[in-house]
Amino acid sequence: MAAPGPGPPTAAFRQRKAQRLARADASRKGALDERAAAVVQLLNGRAQFCTTSSCSGRLVLAQGSAADTNSCEIQKKNCTWLMVTHEMCIKDDVMTALEKATGDVVLKFEPFVLHVLCQELQDAQLLHSVAIDSGFRNSGITIGRGGKIMMAVRSTHCLEVPLSHKGKLMVSEEYIEFLIHVANRKMEENARRIDRFYKRLELALKTAVSANNSPSEETEKNRSVYIHRRKRKTIQEQDVHTFPKGPNEELEPEDDTESHLAIFAEIMI
Predict the structure, then answer these.
(1) Sheet harboring 113-118: ordered strands across?
(2) Residues whose CB falls within 8 Å of the CB of residue 170, separated by 6 or more in sequence, listed in order
(3) How would DSSP label each residue in 38-69?
(4) pTM (global) more than 0.85
């Protein structure tokens, strides 16, 4: 299998990012989820990242057609949302929403999800590593046409349970109360993972910047050679003044390679 090609050129990426961020929010909510806002802003504040979609996590009562129990799974646009919240919920809210049911209703908990366009593969790898370490074990990287690199932050702690069929409730209220308890615990864990992800991402980005700004090992080596060469030259000049050369004497020619290296090191400094 051939190795993936390089990411889009910087100019092209900047243009794509500007176009993406200029678009209107196409989500049902029409705005950024409060819990996901800090992560999105942190990434979009860096030149190498551009978020394309996000959801902080939600509890949903989704109703599909009674004639097709898989309609919600196949096409979300064919579903009716009887209830949706990005916070923990209570039994009364769920029961009130279920009174509107006429088809097949499913209770879902969907955890935090984030899609990020990355300039280079190494940027996506950094983001992927942070996501995995933060508990988002279903995260992954895809490379599309033209070298477009997309990183998806996803988790596996979902919940999906059918509650009614053709408008008829198929479970007890006690069971619904139990499901709500489970879903709320998942929502709490989801919030902890988002917070952990933000803190580790912030640290990883700072570390990456520090690493890029610090002198490389090769630069330090060249600096040492330059300093050593300057010291040797100073000693030679002192020797010339102390013991002037005769008419037929010449100083040893400088080694060309070392001289070029010293010039290169001086430019680097």
Answers:
(1) 49-55, 113-118, 149-153, 140-143
(2) 162, 163, 164
(3) HHHHHHHTSTTEEEEEEE--EEEEEEE-TT-T
(4) no
| pLDDT at position 85 over 70 | yes
Q: What are phi and psi of 169, to 5 degrees?
A: -70, 125
As a whole number, mean pLDDT of residues 177-198 equals 97
CA distance 199 to 207: 12
R_g of the chain computed on alpha carbons: 31
- Residue-wise burial string across 209-248, b where 16 or more C-beta atoms lie within 10 A, e elsewhere: eeeeeeeeeeeeebeeebeebeeeeeeeeeeeeeeeeeee
Between vectors from CA 153 to CA 161 and to CA 195, what angle results, nearest 5°? 90
Q: Which residue's entry shows tokens 């678009």?
A: 23
Token pair for 161: 């349970």
SS3 call for 115? strand
- Name the residue with higher pLDDT: 243 or 102: 102
Within 10 angstroms of residue 166's Cβ, the number of other Cβ atoms is 14
